[in-house]
Please model this.
Amino acid sequence: MQEWQPLVIGARSGLAEEYGFVRCEGGVCAATGMRAAGVAAGLRKEPNRRDLALVVADEACACAATFTQNRFCAAPVQVSRERVANGRARAVVLNSGNANASTGEPGCEVARATAAIVANGLGCDEEDVLVASTGVIGVPLALDGFRTGVPAAIAALADTTEAAHDAATAVMTTDTVAKESAYEGTVCSGNERICVHVGGFVKGSGMIQPNMATMLCVLSTDAPLTAKAARTALRAAVGQTFNKVTVDSDTSTNDTCILFATGHAGGPAIDEASDAYPAVAAAIRSVCEDLSRQIAADGEGATKLVTVDVLGARSEHDAEVVARSIANSPLVKTAIFGHDANWGRVAAAAGKCGVPFEQERVDIDLLGVPVLRAGLPLPMDEDEMLRRFEGPEVDIAISLGEGEASARVWTCDLTHDYVTINGDYRT
Model:
């Protein structure tokens, strides 16, 4: 009997390890010149739960951000988008419990007033303070919690791993765990070798797709990036990571991803033409990819992190359309939850999405096992597949046999708990 080899996923370029970066502790405070705090400000129903986070650079620095493309974008998104356009910022204040979305001009006034409270406490320009919120939509956000919570957060600011974790915890909604990542490495900047850190945190568990997620993300680096280089690196990283995550195909009103670049690592400014830029950009992407995988793994009610790879497509666009069709299929996702090695669900999801291909050329692997070759099923050991399902991750790979393009998307399984969580969200 012929032994079929698993599909080979092409090497992914631009990852931090290729440039000598290694994982480190510290989260958003891994970068020199950054401090953070997370406190309970009474913004949520649970009075002792952290619900206000503050992330502060020692001084205003290069800053870039990406935001939701949902037309019902929240007040803090509108305010922060306008302010970050100048390419600099000093701080961001984030809250959970209330999205401050669909609240009109009063919501924008609250967002600006929140920033003013922070600016007054830090002694900086109001325009250098960004805001972000997550929680229930359509409910006015009161300032009372910020009047007491912001001074408490300022008093608690620290550059420690614990402070970074407190901030990451304060923005959680339906998340079950805080999500953090950090890398460090040495790069050549001009005639110097400098030690660079990149770190950050993210919240996100539901309403994940198509661009970013129901996510608030704060990233930082001490690399001396110019504002333009920070913007270019962030957009590229988000495009290949956060924009490749899907839990339920919905897009939030509040998605915000912010990158501070303090420059405290020293050395000359790093622009897109600098020798150090590819390494720093790779580290930013790696932090974003790590956080993206954590989002998918912690999808609402999820028990499995699912990676969908599509190979052999005519274009990257075609590959991504097929990957998202598979990743968003309720039949695929529930089969994974039920530990059912039903590759037919994968084939059907690929075939329905409008991307042209010949089924006679299609190969499919499930959990690293070849299950379909040239459009025909292969013998499958059901007991072995059940054993493989015991792991925390499920890999799906499909080759269309049409070209050389590929795409990767992360998702999770669909469980009873997803319905429970979202059915009870406001209650």
Confidence is low (pLDDT under 50) at residues 206-213.
